[in-house]
Amino acid sequence: MTASGTRRRRGPPSAEARGAKAVALSRERIVEAALDIVSAEGVAGLSTRKLGERLGCEAMSIYHHYPGKQHLLDALVDHAIASFEWPPQDLPPLQRLSLAMYAYRAMAHRFPALFPLVALHRLNTETGVRFIEGILRLVQDVVPDPELAARHFRTLGYFLAGAGLDETSGYANGPSAAVPVSDEFIMRECPRLVAASRYFKRDQWDRTFALGVDSMLQAMVRDAGGKKPLR
């Protein structure tokens, strides 16, 4: 307000103010804001327009840090993978691998809206290939044979990606144009599904995941010669 009581109009921000805002913008801030949008609206809801609005900047400012949306998505995947908690080195190999499987599941639950992208990403960034190398090392510490280790690494990936997708997105929540069949039809035609459905609920996930981990580790021990590795 001026002394006469009239409202003074504000002009556009000065070059100094705009410069301060540009300096404050960083790759880390962009990633954090993008993760907030993905968490609320999913990967499909992320756009440079929304990101600019959240950060208080023009879309072109974002392009200075990430040339395109895919580059930003790569950075989000790197951020999720980098949060993976590696097990301590002084534990036995089998225990380290078991903890790594649970750590991957925990990462999926930290980023549920982003995880479908993580699960399908090529992981061809430096962060991604180092992560792959690290998991392969854990597997080879249990199964020294290179071919068997590679195959167990792949089956491990099948299991963890599937479990992560099921628990964060839910196979029952996928898209479908079909009208769901009635409960009466399921009761009449699918007695095994009715009996099994109680074990599909959220409060059963931990036991089911543990069963999968134990089954996979037992197979690795078998292929390693039937003895748990000592080193």
Plain-language structure description:
With 231 residues, this protein is an all-alpha fold. The chain folds into two domains: 45 residues, Orthogonal Bundle (Arc Repressor Mutant, subunit A), CATH 1.10.10.60; 124 residues, Tetracycline Repressor, domain 2. Helices cover 64% and strands 0% of the residues. It contains twelve helices and no strands. α6 runs antiparallel to α8, α6 runs parallel beside α9 and α9 packs antiparallel against α12. The chain is flat and about 60 Å long. The N and C termini lie far apart (75 Å).
Structure summarized in a few sentences:
This protein is mostly helical. Helix content is 64%, strand content 0%.
Key words describing this protein structure:
Arc Repressor Mutant, subunit A, mainly alpha, flat, 231 residues, Tetracycline Repressor, domain 2
Q: Can you give the mean pLDDT?
A: 90
Molecular shape: flat
Main β sheet profile: none
Instruction: Report the CATH superfamily of the largest domain.
Output: Tetracycline Repressor, domain 2
CATH architecture group name of the largest domain: Orthogonal Bundle
Radius of gyration: 24 Å
Q: Report the sheet-strand fraction.
A: under 5%
Distance between the termini: 75 Å
Total DSSP E strands: 0
CATH structural class of the largest domain: Mainly Alpha
Number of domains: 2
Q: Count the DSSP helices.
A: 12
Helix-strand string: HHHHHHHHHHHH
The percent of residues in helical segments reads 55-70%
